[in-house]
Amino acid sequence: GAATKGHEEWSKLLAPCEVGLLHGRMSAEEKEEVMKRFRAGKLDALVSTTVIEVGIDVPNATVMFIHDAGRFGLAQLHQLRGRIGRGAHTSYCVLFVDDKDEENRQRLAIMEETSDGFQIAEEDLRRRGPGDVLGHAQSGQAPLLFGELLADTRLVRLARQLAERTLDEDPQLLRPALAVFRDEPVVAEKAQAMMQ
């Protein structure tokens, strides 16, 4: 796949540095072994698919290059760049888009302007619609409902405040009332990532 090809290219470009590979078809054990080596500094760089989007914490990771950044939603890019800059060192996230793709260049400009996950998700929803933001086309759903939600920013901001308070008070979602979210670890991780 693309990640394997990218791994081969970057291994040559960065030689003699050690470059790891992470993708969704690897077993959980294989992924954990790669991340263990990356955390320990045995791997100097990591080529990955968006499997790295959530649940990865490597404080010393300081640079991320995202190829074809125009293919991703703003909220997803925000979550991806949240994997770096977790330590004391200055960090950089570089988004690559085609020079001629002015529309995506303008769309991605908000990533330079803010690190507010809510503001980025709101802009993503405004520009791309609910299906694209959620990661799949949902043309059968009425966009009016999302339009109304977007228009009522007070309601959305209140929901964000309540979510933040819940995560502050119960980060592991251990309260019985939160069991439905606890059973969906990806949802919980994404919620925490959006609050960063």
Overall description:
It contains eleven helices and four strands. By secondary structure, it is mostly helical. It is globular and about 50 Å long. Mean pLDDT is 79; it is low at 132-145.
What keywords describe this structure?
two-stranded parallel sheet; single chain; 196 residues; two-stranded parallel ribbon; 4 strands; mainly alpha
What about the largest sheet? 2 strands, parallel
Could you list the spans in which at least 5 consecutive residues all have pLDDT below 50?
132-145
Structural class designation: mainly alpha
- The helix count comes to 11
- The best one-word shape is globular
Please give the number of β-strands: 4
Major sheet: order of its strands? Answer: 1-2
* Average pLDDT figure: 79
**Rg, alpha carbons:** 18 Å
Strand content is 5-15%
Oligomer: single chain
* First-residue to last-residue Cα separation: 31 Å
Helix content: 40-55%
Helix and strand element order: HEHEEHEHHHHHHHH
Q: How would you summarize the topology of this molecule?
A:
Layout: H1 2-13, E1 19-22, H2 28-39, E2 45-48, E3 63-66, H3 74-81, E4 92-95, H4 102-108, H5 110-113, H6 117-128, H7 130-134, H8 143-151, H9 153-169, H10 179-182, H11 185-194
Parallel strand pairs: 1-2, 3-4
Helix pairs in contact: 3-6
Short description:
Helix content is 51%, strand content 8%. By secondary structure, the chain is mainly alpha-helical. Strands 1-2 form a two-stranded parallel ribbon. It has a two-stranded parallel ribbon with strand order 3-4.
